[in-house]
Write a structure and sequence with these properties.
Chain lengths: ~170, ~190
């Protein structure tokens, strides 16, 4: 593994098989060409609109949540999860196929220590910025220019993680 | 009707609509809801730099960039044309807690005394933009997902690792808000 002649691709394969977590969610799904992707804009518009209208991208609302002073955020996330659970059960029971003909399948999440350590780190950042990754994009769309810096810093964080992940506990 | 659209939407309207994003994406193209992976794909596309973690065919995941374009467009429309521009209706206790920390302006969705371009080069910017953003990026990738991928998609699919992750997110947020914020705000 540490031999000099081993290529990036082989190292990637080794890391992929030996470090748990972070499997690509759509590795086994069909490749969709560029044009077929435009339909996802519709889903994004719906999601982005709701993020703004429900104020969940508000730094103030996130503070209210972490101070246990409002039910709003818990209500949003809780009812979203219940809706999601019911929807997935229905899709599975009825063996629904996606528009591209694939049988709907969801890659299971693999447990690793990062969900605790990394999750805690993300929580710290969530309280500071008032934004998780979805709301980061929504804040930028809504015209909060400072969030562009937050996004760049977040991408840097991902890159640093990728660079040093083989040294981190997983 | 227009009034109803312009007012902030209650949780019991917004939550189910966010939840419906899950089956919507699955039906559109068998896509699992999850946004933080987009930042990994950006690294893979722009600066893979011989790092194994970024060596894969990111184009197979390009749908997320269309989804994000939609998020930005939706957020733009909602904030410009579907808003009554009133301050967020916060619990008075939250307002007094934040006032005690030194926040005075409660207009808009973010406190303008922190999230302003004039803070780019000072301690506020360093903590609230740079450090905060770094923790969001590094943390979500280390955890293998964010609020959408773990808390909504993962829990919807009854994945217990996602429950662990969600509890860790909350723990981090409580820790920052109650134990670290008092020190951060003393810096200004």
């Amino acid at each position: 593994m540490k031999h000099e002649n081993i290529t990036v691709k082989e190292t990637a394969k080794w890391e992929y098989e030996n470090i748990p977590g972070n499997k690509l969610p759509h590795e086994f799904t069909r490749y969709e060409d560029f044009k077929a992707n435009f339909k996802y804009i519709a889903a994004g518009v719906l999601f982005g609109t709701v993020l703004i209208k429900s104020e969940v991208i508000s730094w103030f609302r996130i503070q209210e949540m972490f101070r246990l002073q409002s039910f709003h955020m818990y209500g949003v996330i809780g009812s979203a999860v219940i809706t999601g659970i019911i929807s997935i059960q229905i899709l599975k029971k009825l063996n629904v196929k996606a528009l591209n003909g694939e049988l709907i399948s969801i890659r299971p999440k693999e447990f690793q220590k990062g969900q605790i350590i990394g999750g805690f780190m993300f929580g710290l950042g969530w309280a500071i910025t008032g934004a998780c990754p979805g709301p980061i994009y929504a804040q930028i769309g809504a015209g909060f220019t400072t969030t562009i810096i937050t996004l760049f810093s977040a991408i840097l964080g991902v890159w640093i993680y990728g660079r040093f992940r083989h040294k981190l506990p997983h | 009707m227009i009034d109803l659209i312009k007012q902030p939407w209650p949780w019991y309207v917004a939550g189910p609509l966010i939840g419906l994003t899950v089956p919507f994406l699955l039906i559109l193209g068998n896509k699992s809801f999850g946004i933080s992976n987009s930042m990994r794909h950006i690294c893979a596309a722009v600066l893979p730099a011989k790092i194994p973690f970024f060596h894969y065919d990111w184009k197979k995941e390009q749908w997320i960039f269309f989804f994000i374009a939609g998020i930005m467009a939706g957020a733009f429309m909602a904030s410009n044309y579907m808003s009554n521009h009133q301050p967020v209706d916060l619990n008075p206790k939250t307002i007094s807690d934040l006032t005690a920390l030194g926040i005075t302006n409660f207009n808009g969705l973010l406190p303008s005394e922190i999230f302003d371009m004039s803070n780019i080069l000072n301690v506020r910017g360093l903590i609230f933009f740079i450090l905060g953003g770094f923790l969001v990026g590094f943390g979500t990738r280390y955890a293998g997902g964010c609020t959408s991928g773990h808390a909504i998609m993962g829990l919807s699919n009854l994945q217990w690792p996602s429950l662990v992750a969600t509890l860790a997110f909350m723990a981090g947020g409580f820790f920052m808000t109650h134990l670290i914020f008092p020190f951060i705000f003393k810096l200004f």
